[in-house]
Design brief:
ADP-ribosylation fold; three-stranded antiparallel beta sheet; RNA_2'-PTrans_C; NAD+ poly-ADP-ribosyltransferase activity
């Protein structure tokens, strides 16, 4: 594993899953000072610079992090207890969720739930949903979400980068399985 990949994975772990393990304190939108993150990486034996992180993020195929005004945050994927505040947006007519057939009956019964994450992860198109869903072993199933209809009935959606949308739990009535 290259140093850049190791640093990227460590940043992801620190900002999405275990900030306290790195002595980081995220604000309610998930931001932490870049200087604090650099200190945390150095403390974990991963010396790097602000410039190296900026360059690594600029070269990354997927934009998972945002840097602004000397601070950094992960866009999505948080599993920490304190909920990251997002700005709701009106979604397109449909969004998509990739999963495996083994979860389908539960989804039909309970809807899409955030599980161990803070939000349900959705994709703007079926292609992206297939990529995301194929990370799990099993027969892939794509669920079509009636996003606009759900939004009009008070289910909140949040637009992120890379064609990713987040949402609160989505009842089964808005799912085409």
């Amino acid at each position: 594993m290259t140093d850049a990949i190791k640093i990227s994975k460590t940043i992801s772990h620190a900002l999405r899953h275990a900030p306290l393990e790195y002595n980081l304190h995220l604000d309610n939108e998930g931001w932490v000072s870049l200087a604090s993150l650099l200190n945390a990486l150095n403390d974990k034996g991963l010396p790097t610079t602000e410039e190296a992180i900026i360059e690594m993020l600029a070269k990354a195929e997927k934009k998972r992090f945002q840097i602004l005004d000397g601070k950094i945050r992960a866009y999505y994927g948080h599993s920490i207890e304190e909920k990251i505040v997002k700005q709701a947006s009106e979604p397109p007519e449909y969004l998509y969720h990739g999963t495996i057939r083994g979860y389908l009956e539960s989804i039909k019964e309970k809807g899409l739930l955030s599980m161990d994450r803070q939000y349900v992860h959705l994709s703007i198109d079926e292609r992206t949903a297939k990529i995301v869903g194929s990370r799990r072993a099993g027969e892939l199933v794509i669920i079509k979400v009636k996003a606009k209809q759900a939004f009009n009935n008070q289910v909140l959606f949040y637009k992120e980068e890379n064609g990713i949308w987040l949402s609160d739990s989505i009842p089964p009535i808005y799912l085409e399985c």
